[in-house]
Structure formats: C-alpha cells, structure tokens
C-alpha cells in the first residue's frame, strides 16, 4: 500500500516516489515559504536597519565645520553594511530609534553645549573688544571694520579648505544663500538700531537689558512660531531666569568703564516709549538673525554661510556710513581703535561660524539662542572684571548665578522640535 512522506509530500510505493497532489503541493509551498522567510530575516540581520558610522560623526561640530550636514537629509545615509556581525536585529532597531529621537529632540547635550558656550565666549570677547576701542573710533566705522575683518577671516578659512582639495565639502543651495543674506541684513539692522538707541542718550544700563533680554524672549517665541519647536515648563522657567539674570547684571551699580568715542554730543534722554520701542525692534532683529542662521544651517557650509552674512552686514554698514559722510559728519579713529575693532571682527566672525555649526547639528533654536545670548552676558560680566577693571556688586553676582541656572535649564529642556529645519 502506498504511503506519504510527510517531509517531502511525495507518495512512496514499492521504492518509487511520485508527487502527491494537494498534500505534496501544500508541503512544498510551506517549505519554500519557510526558506524565503529565513533568507529575509538573515538579510535584515545583516544591516537593513543599520546607520553608517559616518552619520554619527557628521553630528559633531568638527564635521559641521568641515562641510558635512545631515540635519534634515537622512534617507540616503541609511546603509546596508553591518559594522559587527554579532550585533542582532534588536540592536539595529534600537539604533534607529536613537536616530529618530535625535532628529526630534536634537543631538545629545554633550555634543553641542561646549561649542555653544565657546560661541557665547566669542560674543563676549567681541563686546569687550568693542568697549576697549570705543574711545578711539566712531562706533559705526568700528562696526564696518569689524564686519569686513570677520568676512575676510572667514574667506581665508574658506580658501584654506579649497587649497586642501576640500571643494566638495563647501556645499550650499539657493535657500542656504538666501537665509545667510537674511541673517546679514538682520544683524546689520540690529547694529544700526543699537547705535541709534545709544546715540539718543539712553544709558547702557537701561538699553542693554531690554535689547539682550528681549532677543532671548523673541528667540524662544520665534523658535516656537516659525520653526515649530517646543519648550516645556522646564525650559520656559530657564528663559525667565536668563531674562532676570541679564537684567540684574546689566543694572548692577558696580564700577563701569564708560563707553564713548562716537564723537556725538550729549543729549537729554528721549521719551521712554520711543527708546524702548527702538530697543525692542533691535532685540527682534537679533532674534530674527539667529532664526535665519537656524533655517539656513542645513543648506550651506557654516564657513560659507558666515562669510556671506558678514559681507552683507559690512556692505549694509558701509551704506549707513556713506549716509553719515554725506551729512558732513566727521569720523574719529586712531590706531588703537582700529586694532580693537579688528580683534572684535575676529571674535564675532568666530562666533557666527560656531553659531552656524551649532544650528547645523540640529540643536533647537529655543535652546541655542538663550544659551548663546545669556552665556555671552555671563562671560562678559566675568571678563569685564579682569580685562576692564569693572566690578560687580551682590546684585550682579546674583544675576550671574541666575544666568548659569537658566543656561542649564534651557539646555536640558526635553521639548521637541519639528524635523526639517
């Protein structure tokens, strides 16, 4: 009597084997399906969900300055190469989850906080150098000189990369250039408004808290409205501490080095509503400058972006300077003022380059802007003691502590950002 081989689905009769109709076909199909499933699992195990090691490296500040960016483009970076064959499918899924988390929450704090604080230090040195040279050069002339120095410094760095055969790393597209130009126009506008407020006879202890504190608040609000980024209560509490700290430091009654050198006449303080309105417009311009950097950072090499915005701001300042000369005003300047203005240009050029780099790492604007601005005030207060001989009273040191606390709270805020910026 014939029997059925259940392993192969064939009839066995007298040593002869024949295919067995429905049972044989079903068994063969199940066997074929099992083999295909096994092959698919092995293929996935070999890295279908693996992300290349270069992708992790491109999140660092050194990779950003070298020309790599991946803050919004990810599909082409998914690799089928497996770095370690002992790594299982679960490990690949965890790695992909980490990528998704990084794209919605930004990179880990340890990757970006030190470049951000270095950027804040550069901004603080920029303000210190401006203050050192304020007696010896007209402020608008000094601003034009520092922007051209910053632009040429960035150009030299750009040429250095090209000389090393890194031309492929100098990437840009239309929107990257547009946002860089926008950043240059906004920072030029902010400087013009700042000079205007100072020229109206408003004390620096009043105008500086309004301008800097306002830019922190506007930056957080614009990050939410324009970029779709979100701060939770933890982060907003940090913004409040930053604002309070800035106000306490700026209005501290300790000894201050007087600013001057503009050659203008002393005038009575203008109506409060007028100078506060102009100061808030200046703060908004600084915040929009940072937003433009954030929007363009994924589409242009940070060095190239910094050079573009610096030249735009310098040209904008030159137009303003030309208007002053046409009015018959005299521009005072000496060698000391030019030297300090040039050093300020190097400092602000470094700060703008680092700002592009930090933004390109995927850091939320609602986190980076308060830290860059609040950190610069904190470093400025400390550097003012050693470089300018200024002193802080108890109120000022309380402000410094509030700034440090605010920086920590904003930097560790768990809020999310919209991908694509």
UniProtKB/TrEMBL annotation:
The chain crosses the membrane at residues 109-128, 140-163, 175-195, 207-226, 233-251, 271-291, 303-326, 338-357, 369-388, 394-412. It is found in: Membrane. It is a multi-pass membrane protein. Signal peptide: none annotated. GO terms for cellular component: membrane. Keywords: Membrane, Transmembrane, Transmembrane helix. Coiled coil: none annotated. This is EamA-like transporter family protein. It comes from Nitzschia inconspicua. The lineage of its organism: Eukaryota, Sar, Stramenopiles, Ochrophyta, Bacillariophyta.
């Amino acid at each position: 009597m014939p029997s059925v081989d259940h392993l192969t689905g064939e009839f066995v009769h007298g040593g002869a084997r024949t295919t067995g109709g429905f049972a044989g076909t079903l068994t063969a199909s199940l066997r074929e399906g099992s083999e295909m499933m096994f092959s698919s699992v092995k293929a996935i195990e070999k890295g279908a969900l693996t992300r290349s090691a270069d992708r992790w490296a491109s999140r660092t500040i050194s990779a950003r300055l070298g020309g790599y960016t991946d803050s919004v483009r990810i599909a082409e970076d998914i690799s089928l190469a497996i770095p370690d064959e002992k790594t299982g499918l679960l490990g690949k899924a965890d790695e992909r989850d980490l990528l998704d988390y990084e794209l919605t929450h930004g990179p880990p704090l340890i990757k970006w906080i030190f470049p951000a604080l270095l950027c804040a230090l550069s901004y603080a040195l920029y303000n210190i150098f401006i203050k050192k040279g304020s007696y010896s050069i007209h402020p608008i002339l000094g601003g034009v000189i520092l922007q051209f120095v910053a632009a040429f410094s960035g150009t030299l760095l750009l040429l250095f990369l090209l000389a090393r055969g890194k031309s492929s790393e100098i990437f840009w597209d239309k929107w990257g250039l547009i946002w860089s130009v926008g950043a240059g126009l906004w920072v030029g506008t902010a400087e013009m408004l700042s000079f205007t407020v100072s020229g109206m006879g408003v004390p620096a202890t009043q105008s500086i808290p309004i301008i800097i504190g306002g830019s922190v608040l506007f930056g957080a609000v614009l990050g939410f409205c324009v970029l779709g980024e979100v701060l939770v209560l933890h982060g907003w509490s940090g913004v409040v501490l930053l604002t309070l700290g800035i106000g306490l430091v700026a209005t501290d009654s300790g000894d201050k080095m007087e600013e001057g050198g503009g050659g203008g006449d002393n005038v009575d303080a203008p109506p409060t509503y007028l100078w506060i309105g102009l100061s808030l417009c200046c703060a908004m311009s600084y915040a929009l400058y940072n937003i433009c950097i954030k929007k363009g950072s994924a589409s242009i090499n940070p060095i190239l972006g910094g050079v573009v915005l610096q030249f735009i701001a310098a040209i904008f300042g030159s137009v303003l300077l030309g208007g002053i000369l046409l009015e018959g005003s005299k521009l005072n300047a000496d060698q000391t003022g030019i030297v300090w203005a040039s050093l300020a240009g190097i400092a602000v050029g470094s700060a703008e380059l680092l700002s592009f780099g930090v933004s390109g790492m995927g850091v939320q604007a609602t986190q980076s802007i308060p830290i860059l601005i609040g950190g610069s005030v904190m470093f400025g207060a400390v550097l003012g003691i050693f470089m300018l001989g200024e002193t802080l009273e108890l109120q000022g040191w309380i402000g410094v502590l509030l700034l440090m606390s605010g920086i920590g709270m904003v930097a560790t805020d768990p809020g999310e950002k919209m991908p694509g910026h």
